[in-house]
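Annex B. Sample input.
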Amino acid sequence: MPLNFNVAPWYDDFDASKNYHRILFKPGFAVQARELTQAQTILQDQITKFADNIFKQNSPVTGGQVTTNLLCNYIKLQSSYQGTTIDLDLFAGQLIQDTTGLITARVLGIVPGTGETGVGDPPTLVVSYNSGNRFTANSLLKISLTNTFAQVSTEADAVGNSSVASIDQGVFYISSNYKNTEGITVSYGSFVQVNPQTTVLSKYSSSPNARVGLNIFETVYDYINDTSLLDPAVGASNYQAPGADRYVIKLTLESRPLTFGDDDGFIELIRVENGSIAKIVDGSVYNVIDDYFAKRDYETNGDYVVNDFKLTPKTYSTNENKYTMSVGKGIAYVHGYRIENPIQLDILTNRARTTETQNNNPVYFDVGNYFYVNSVNGSNTSFFDITRTQQIDLHCVPISKVTVGSEAAYKSTLVSTGYIRNLTYDRTAGASANANSYVYKAFVNDLVGNTATGTAQSGTAATITLPSTYTSQNDAYVGVSITLTGGTGAGDIRNIIGYNGSTKVATVNQNFTTTPDSTTTFALNFNLTHVESLMSLATPGTYPSNIIGRAEIDVSSKFGNTANGDTILQTGGSPEMIFKLGNPFVSS
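Annex B, continued. Sample output.
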């Protein structure tokens, strides 16, 4: 919580709700110390309002990268040397050596002794060796180029492996708030420099379990804390002119247990579990601007996986009724926000130990390509039989416009044939509970395209009249490519841009090279974008025939979700998230 400066001797009673943006000093009027302090607060308030929009609370801005060193070593020291208690602070950051100079090491951290001699832990140095040789129990060491000595402990484990974390220089945006005596929330945001520091993770282990971060320390310095605050106007510090106080924010690197405690004022940057990094803040954490880009990314790309989370089931040796599911490293974007699993995550769960018997229970295979369909119905006491690979036909017109009375009429709208292997309920379209509004996924496979052929009745420079058996559905062939395969105009390829179902006249996008006539043969080249319905016949290939299953393509299988959009065959093979993450957590 930021310090409250609306107390003696500063009396900074700045209130943002009053919208004071400048303090206007006037000749002939005394300048109040409160006004000088409040002038700074007005500027600080402006900085805070802008920065809060860009950065999340306590976010790194530049630098401040945390690194771990799990290959360093500890040296336990005797608490005194030649009868004099050692001053451990003298060793901090120093280069140490043995008396011969053959063993050298840099001190990364110091840990004072705990308890009484022989009961608690002795004073300890955490070092990184510069030499191949190491200190041993009871050996003598000193700070290089000095006569400051210390004796290594005589314990069997006087030396061993240790671990530290360091942070380089950087800037953090520190923001916090409190309510003043009038109940008004006062916010302070400051860009605070962090200086290079090192903290010990586990002084006697290279596989630590710890949370590493910055502790926010706020205080006020006066000339007693820092003599440089004395007035230097006469060329030296003037003890008769102590001057103004200084508001200080310090960021100190600390390690804390994995279990949460009093974390007020603590910024967690990295979490280490059994010597592996489980969580890390490796860059700026943006606020509103991050939400904007996440929204745009989600609307454009949806949820997706960048690097798959590999799943590996493993036995759990201590309990045969449980097993471990190992989730590997991976990166995904959920609602536009980046989610990373930086280390292998083991999830302990129960094995399946209960059984249930059901005879003649069909098992369906509901993966692969599918269409969204509605108005799913059966006919003639039958329906789509998804217990076997039932043949289906896909048409370029609604079911009501498909003619099953003759082969020529039927195949004039036939886009493709294939097989249906499953129907799964997806949702209800709109507020209606009518079964025709139910939307299903129709899983299909082995689709084979059809080409409708025939002989034209006549033609003009930009039209061709199709046979009388062709569909009466207006615009049924719009977007279909037509190839003149024989007779007059053979070789021309055009796209149909209009079709009159009454006159059977198809209009093309470009004049034919030669006007087609009654000798012209043609082929309509369908593709899956032209599909409008699917059905199953009682006796495929025999006409007339009875329809036993029918469905219309839903708009959700259309490009742009519009009725006139091209039909899209959905792909079910895209990687999916392994586990769902709570959206509120992700977005916050």
